[in-house]
Amino acid sequence: QVAQSSIDNEALIIQNYLTLRETFGGTSAMTKSRERAELARQAIATNNLSPQRFSFRSNRQSRFI
Q1: Cα(31)–Cα(47) distance, rounded to whole angstroms?
Q2: What is the DSSP string of 15-27?
């Protein structure tokens, strides 16, 4: 369903994912999940991470451009 959603919804999907990631699992949640989610939010706010769909390129992909 995410693949068929509008590109305009990408930021909302990321925000919802980060919120879920912070809280999922209760006492078994990811180590320092809130801090990790906040780092991702800060990276988006400072334009070090793009919220645009298909913007991520791995190092491997970058070598072939």
Answers
A1: 25
A2: HHHHHHHHHTTGG
For the chain (length 65 residues), average pLDDT per consecutive 10?
73 81 72 82 84 71 63
The token pair that represents 40 in the structure block = 């991702």
Give Cβ neighbours of residue 11 (< 8 Å, ≥ 6 apart): 51
Total domain count, the chain: 1
The residue behind tokens 């980060």 is 18
Predicted TM-score (pTM) of this structure: 0.53
Residues 18 and 27: their CA atoms lie apart, in Å, by 17
Is 30 strand, coil or helix? coil
Residue 55 in any domain: the answer is yes
